[in-house]
Amino acid sequence: MRFRARITSKSVLELFIQVSGTVTKLAKVCVLRVCPDRLCFCPTGLPGEARLWGEVKRGVFHHFCMEGVSEEFNEIYLELMSEHLARAVKNAGSASSLKLQLTNKLRPCLTVVVELPSCPGHTRAMVHDLPVKVLPRRWWKECTEPRVWASDVSVYLPSLKTLKNMVERMANVGDRVLVEANLNGKMNLSVETDVVTIKSYFKNLGNPPKAVTGATQGEDPENMVQVRVDNRKLLLFFEGQQINPTVALCNILSNTLLHLVLVHDGVSLQYFIPAS
User: Fold this and answer.
1) Of 38, 113, 116, 252, which is most buried with the most CB atoms under 10 A?
2) What is the dihedral of CA 83, 88, 90, 94, to 10 degrees?
3) DSSP classification of residue 124
4) How far apart are CA 89 and CA 210, in angstroms?
5) Sheet strands (E) in the chain
6) Which DSSP symbol is given to 140?
């Protein structure tokens, strides 16, 4: 097995720092899945819990080289403490490059090398050896990408900062929040108790083209599709996510799943919250 990757672009460095920070906010333990075409963050969790799935495409790396456990199973699964990775890359924003490498230093390690500019023509390096557990193939099925069901409605998200503020206020009122959206670019958030009801309305958000063209013929675009989820899990996502996405989507599978998607260049984050 071999894995070596290098990032030299400042914008990609910042994105990688943000993704690592998001993962550590949402999960204590993470599996780094190294594939020929991408690097995946797979926080571990119990079935039925909210799950994060992060991806960094191979194309954003200046250099990316890997050999999996075999020619047939050309992947590597590394379990590590997500906080360790976030700390190691935290100060890489001003670095000239960031290197990741699978090494063996008495035990398997993910070695993170942050190269910082020093005197003209010179660099200094900070090296972090993060202990990892190389997962055998029999455990790989525990770290598979969450299945993406065909959603009943998909809508672009409004300002994430605005949503975070709304969800924070609702979390002080009730344990569950109702998320609704339709094919006319509308989305509502609401929380209800015996004493009070709070509801926020968003309109003209727009729908992805595929969501509209894939709608059932004759379906009323004003019909709202809804799912009720744990307010704390939704708030955890908005508090933890750190990237500034170019695309942010809310997909709803009626009364079953809330699927949030954030994309920026070759980096994506998906968050799956089951109905409660």
Assistant:
1) 252
2) -170
3) E
4) 37
5) 2-7, 29-35, 38-43, 51-57, 63-67, 76-81, 97-104, 108-117, 123-131, 133-134, 153-156, 176-181, 187-192, 197-202, 225-230, 247-253, 257-264, 267-274
6) G
Q: How far apart are CA 246 and CA 274, in angstroms?
A: 25
Cα 210 to Cα 40, 76, 95, 150, 183: the distances in Å are 25, 34, 40, 11, 11
- Close Cβ partners of 204 (under 8 Å, ≥ 6 residues apart): 185
DSSP state of 135: -
Closest CA to 271 of 31, 117, 55, 1: 55
Look at residue 242 in the predicted model and tell me its pLDDT.
83
Residue with the two structure tokens 């333990």? 29
* pLDDT score at 45: 63
Question: How far is residue 207 CA from its own chain's centroid?
Answer: 21
- For residue 56, CA distances in Å to 61, 159, 177, 230 come to 9, 23, 31, 28
Residue type, 262: L
Give the max Cα distance, the chain. Answer: 68
Report which of 188, 194, 185, 196 is spatially closest to residue 226, judged by C-alpha positions.
188
B/e letters for 125-144, b = 16+ CB within 10 Å, e = fewer, are eeeebbebeebeeeeeeebe
- Mean pLDDT of successive 10-residue segments in the chain (276 residues)? 94 91 88 95 73 92 94 94 92 88 95 84 85 93 80 93 91 92 95 89 91 55 93 89 90 94 91 92
